[in-house]
Amino acid sequence: MAAVSMTVNGRGVRGEVEGRTMLVEFLREHLGLTGTHVGCDTTQCGACIVHVNGLAMKSCTMLALQCEGAAVTTIEALAPPGKPLHPMQAAFREHHALQCGYCTSGMVMIALDIARRFGEPDEATIREQLKGNICRCTGYHNIVKAIAAGARAMARQHA
Amino acid sequence: MSSTPPKFASGSISRPLPRLEDERFLRGGSRYVSDLIATSKALRVAVLRSPHAHARIAAVDASKARTWSGVIAVLTAVDLTNIGDLPCDWASPGMDVVPQQPVLARDRVRYVGEPIAAVAAETAHAAEDALAAITVTYQKLPGVADQEAALEDGAPRLHDAVPGNIAFRFPRAGGNVARAFAEAGVVIRRRLTNSRATAAPLEGRAVLSDFDSRADRLIHHTSSQLPHVHARSLGKCLGLPLHKLRLVVPDIGGGFGAKLGFYAEDVICALLSMRTGRPCAWKEGRGESFLATTHGRDQIQYVELAARRDGRIIGLKTRIIADLGAYAFGMGPGVPAINTGLSVTGLYRIPNVETEVIGVYTNRTPTGPYRGAGHPEATFLIERVVDDLARELARDPIELRRVNFVPASATPYLLPTGLTLDSGDYAAAMDTALALAGYAELRKQQVQLRRQGHYFGIGLAAFAENSGVGPSMAMDAVGFRRAGHESARVVVHPDARATVFCGTQSTGQGHTTGLAQIAAGVLGIAVEDIAVVEGDSHAIPFGTGTFNSRTTSIGGSAVYEAARKIMDKATKIAAHKLQRRPRDLVYENGLFRVIPHPGARSSITRLGMKLGERIVRIVVKRRSGFALHVPKRGVDSVTFADIAREAHLGHDLPLGMVPGLDEICFFDPKDMLVDYGVHVAVVEVDAETGHVALLRHVMLDDCGRIINPLLVEGQVHGGAAQGIGQALMEAVVHDSDGQPLVGSYNDYAMPHATDMPAFETARAEIPTNLNPLGVRGVGEGATIGATPAVVNAVLDALAPLGVTDIAIPMTPMRVWQAVERAQHDLSSRSTSPSGHDAFVEATRLVPESRS
After folding, report:
1. A12 and A57: one domain?
2. Model confidence at B584: pLDDT above 70
């Protein structure tokens, strides 16, 4: 067991983990942040995407110990309880971009990363940028629409 | 053709309402079984699985694992006395021997991934580590991993009681097939393979089982599409009565049929909890999922189609060899026998039909229903050969379909296989799809592009699905050991909010919203004021569950009828309060009003009611000394909220009425209904690399009356993606001994966003009269239609090169090989290779490097 400390959703946390403990396991089982999911164990599906120091990362293939001192943001931080949804979350709801919801937190977290990097991306860019994410329910149609709309709403917010 | 329209008191129906459940998921508030496990103190269970496709187990030694640090309990087959095998609840008719999978393998393993032992430990890591300390001594046996090889003389036999590995033969016939073929002007013969695929929901299966020994009660959380059925299965395996076993299904991260099976891990976790006195939890790794969760499809289909030269199809013969995998598991055998066997004629009027489905055991993971469950296989079969016929006769495939469709005027149409197409206008559906696609323009474009050396193809598929399982009385005849109805209970609370309990189970379809819309429509209250509860065997009276696109048509109808009962009672209370007859009231948006000028009979009734109440008041006052409530005069309306409160208080109800607003309905349909549609796929094939680009995918569905167009669209999009996946990339592949060559999303190609076009959709809305809502199914239709549409488009694109067949999935390798082969054939033959006797050489589903 080794000690690890990091900032998760703006709060300093520490824990004792086995060396083989993945970041996602630390988030879910030690911190109870179960909004981030594991779909494939092999970095294909992206259900586990969180932001580490501002970058989208697959938390199922990152050791908790690698995140020593890092700032981690998960889906739970986007809209605090009682506050309205983040524009990207709202766009997912508006466009029916989720069905079973299992890939959703990863999709929203990558969507924010896409919006950060591309501003208002076109459809082809969004599809290309979703290569590391799998959704088995939606056929991606509405996810692509939602990300375009969410990115637009975010750009308007910043303007 | 249409039924009496359902009666709604608000505009909640047919609205594209965003889902009520979304916000919770979007905020990270999911409650999948694995989420419950993460925050529980449960012991973690790991399962030791067979690495061999076929072997005798000489010995299992778990003594070392039992002493492993952190290990609390270990189970092997010898620890399972009096534990039942896993039930098969859909055997084919005529299937005498039903070899069920044991919870843990006893003396023999029959597929890679079959459970042998289980460990419960303090942590997941400790449980996994301890598996390595269990020693199993195997005697390897020859395996067979192909259903045709399994039928050969001398093939390894999987079950001693099943000679030739034949689980069943299910023949159906109608008309005079011999004469049809004798009279045919043209006969198409094909051997098709419908590849093995898997549902691969993003959430694997998971179980959290908690036995309370003091209360002698088990609370069992599991990811199941059939909560009540699986409660019964679990109770049967464990010998637990149902009042002591509460099976709860929280959120499910996709099912698509894979969570219809009842699996070993449910029994393992429950048993470990009963033995250790602690909650026990297991969650499936992705690798385990590929081995130990049912696969789907996997049929070899021999097809002969007889037609006249004018294009009229007069006969169909099929012999379908279905791979059941190693056991008769869950719904496995019934899927090919009934769903494929009875649906081979598609939407066509084919008077003479002979079909046989042969179920075969092999050393592979058991198969079960996968989105569409037998219908995609049947549709693939018929839509492939109808296109082949069109090519043979040099006719446009749409013309040929138009000539052969069952006309709307002939519905309900009894197919020679025994199924009924209840209603629908298939030609009109095709015309709408073609108009949306711009078919005529596409054909012109194709001529031009072909001249420029582009391989541009247009593919069509018309599909039907017999959906909405029921009626119950017919289930036994088709070997289905389950009910065919659905239950719903609607409770209106004293504050006029409501809870809907339904025996269906959402795996992501949006039942929380759709069923609430139905109830809201009837009750005339806001959708947001309704909660939907599914997945609790103690909270819900009974449930048949979610599959066969039956939730809205059957479960939704149960909700509708239960809510109607509520309204009947509420209207009687309102009439009593307003001193009118119920028929003199109208109800809309939460308000009962007296209709203007209700007439002389109403006035007479009113006088009578007033008189009656006065007498009651006088009698009560004389006997008890208390004064009853005097109704207000001159009031001509009352709110639903007032009625809801009154119904619970019971202060002023009509004489003899019991209090409460709580009604149950078991809806059992008269027959199955048909949902249908037409897909048009447009592709461009790169003949140099074999890559297929799906440029457009156009879909027309008739799912009857629509409750929420947003949810319907979602089902259509997602369904299409899975159908396209099977056409172009997805395949579960084993080597000839049964060793799986696919075990992760790395090597099982699932569609990504770049593989999919933006979908183009439209809908016909012809209500069925088989349920009060007039709704048909929609959850599986697009999966059924998409595969053959894309396959036909690719073959259309490559027709100029002489390509007539490519096995699915049409991977770049296979497409490239087919192009190479066709060009080689063209250059080596002096005559044209086309001809109706050309029996296409089989391209088996084997690893591509070997084919």
Report:
1. yes
2. yes
